[in-house]
Amino acid sequence: MENSEKKYLITSALPYANGALHLGHLAGAYLPADIYVRYLRLMGRDVVWVCGSDEHGAAITIRAKKEGVSPQEIIDKYHRLNKDTFEKLGISFDYYHRTSAELHHRTSQDFFMRLYEKGDEFEEQVIEQYYDEAYDQFLADRYIQGTCPKCGYDSAFGDQCESCGSDLSPTELINPVSTLSGQRPVLKPTKHWYFKLDKHAGWLREWISEGVLDGVQHHDPRTWKKHVIGQCLSWLDEGLQPRSITRDLSWGIAVPLPDAQGKVLYVWFDAPIGYISATRQWAAEQGVDWEAYWKGDQVELIHFIGKDNIVFHCIVFPAMLKAHGEFALPRNVPANQFLNFEGQKFSKSRGWGIEQHDYLETFRDFPNKEDALRYVLIRNMPENRDSDFKWDEFVEFHDKELADNLGNFINRVAVLTHKYFEGKVPVTGVELADAHPKVLEIVEKLRHELEAFSFKAAVQTLMELSSYGNGYLQDVSPWKIWKEDPADPRIAACMFASLQICGLLSILMEPFIPFSAAKVRQLFGLPPLAPGMLATALDVLRSGGSLLPTGHIIGEPFILFAKIQDRKDPVRMELIQEQKAKLEAIMQEEKQEERVPLKEAIDYDAFAKIDLRTGTITAAEKVEKADKLLKLSIDLGMEKRTVVSGIAEYYTPEEVVGQQIVLVANLAPRKLRGIMSEGMILMAENTEGKLTFVSPASPDWGNGFVVR
Hints:
The chain is of the alpha+beta class. The protein has five domains: 7-108 and 263-339, Rossmann fold, CATH 3.40.50; 117-248, Beta Complex (Methionyl-trna Synthetase, domain 2); 396-542, Isoleucyl-tRNA Synthetase, Domain 1; 564-594; 604-707, CATH 2.40.50.140. Helices cover 41% and strands 17% of the residues. It contains 21 helices and 27 strands. The strands form nine sheets. Strands 18, 19, 20, 21, 24 and 27 form a six-stranded antiparallel beta sheet that branches. Strand 18 and strand 19 form a beta hairpin. The longest helix is centred in the middle third of the chain and has 31 residues, at 391-421.
């Protein structure tokens, strides 16, 4: 076991308790943290991982209003759902807390007062804030909707446009309305407290860009993800501003000041303090000192989040911690980017995607459903750029890598051990470290990738180890040797080494696919995993020992990963096809909804005024400085016409020459880009906006004929 005085405090973003979590949430902040924490435990590190439900803020009250229940009922419902789902997926928090807990309220108020009493961290401002006269209350940003001034989206909230992603303030919205009454709110003065974030800009820039804190090297910025540092420096370049930390709301943590009646701490201020209160609650129940994990030079504080939380965890919260004066700052914030679903963003309203609890229910009879999902999400983890979950890749990764590679190797070793040695580890003089140095090289590579938060690469290295085992078995081919001489020592040597690799795999699988790791441990008669086991195993192997000693008895072999694409058992593939069919149905329905509705009815006389004629394009060229326009020469039989048409996005001049068309021949001429256009070509437009010609069905139809 490693001897380290470091104390690792790992956090994952607190999920809002106002809805279920989808696969993108899992891939963003919880699965990567679980991998890292499980690895640290295997190495014997002193680690605590905290998370919990974020249960304050306007989003909770809005959801409660929609469902006609109290905010408490909403947070209770989703706290239970998300906590239970995390547990079922093997997300192994040391403590999953709640920000509605009394200890969290007290911790947040104490933190506020510590900064307030310093005298120079807050400023008071009287501002004009929207007020709903019908409901007689000030409106939080999320209770105001209007048109985004930047993209024109007509349902933007007062704090953010969900269409273009822009940060907004309520007064920027065009035509704002209250989501409570539907009426236009009025502006009224109200007092709030602001955290002087701008005063921390200097040290924040040095800490983020150089890793230096108070003149001491705090961390190596080269180990931070480029998009994390880039986003932070962009904020710093724009200039930090004081940030309001209070809100006029009835739901939340009361501001502990006598002149702050009816005000609560803004959710972004109290939520990260939830990491501290969760640690305090864990420590109280464990009977240990919580401060040892938050204060001192030996603390390794690491935040796992999605990219939408980078600024809060790399600028705002560190500034709060340093202003407080006693807490350690994060050593790293390995924020992931976003996971999409079949090429599009997750959308609950559209039914696009799948939530974590729905996956578990839908695939309840699917063998290894938890590890199948974990593995596919790791293989496609959005570590440095947005990635995409696809059902076809789910099948491919599961069958080719989990089943054909890892599962195949483990099963072959178990089967052959029973066949040749009655399920006992054979006697041999082989030492794995000497005979197979490549094995330990692969393990060190995997460890390096885990330490660097490169989980996608690490799980592929895990597969590299089982690939090595498969290749070794195939090279030796003990089944061939057995036919010639069952007593040949090469058989025992091969099976002994393969069994040691299986023992090692049963440990290394744990961070990624823990349910399968437990099954492999059981198969090979090994005890359940405990803290420090990987460090111990490596010491044993390096010193010439073995993980499965001679004479050790293994269990009966079984199929670890049943393939999805299995003709003899098509049920699993049918599940996948059902999921794909649901998405196809959504797309088809949306295409129908996107069709242009019919225009108002006209009488026959109005239609009869339109003169439609057949013609042929005889020449075409691009219109200068107009990307969408082509200048066309049209032969109408009795005369020639020049027409300017907006089809250059879909057709080149060369493609349209000789094309038969239908022309609106009596349309009044008009000048486009200095060219007189004498008519309009009929085109059909599909749901993707692509244009195609409306033309006579017969290729030898003449020019100038009337279309009736």
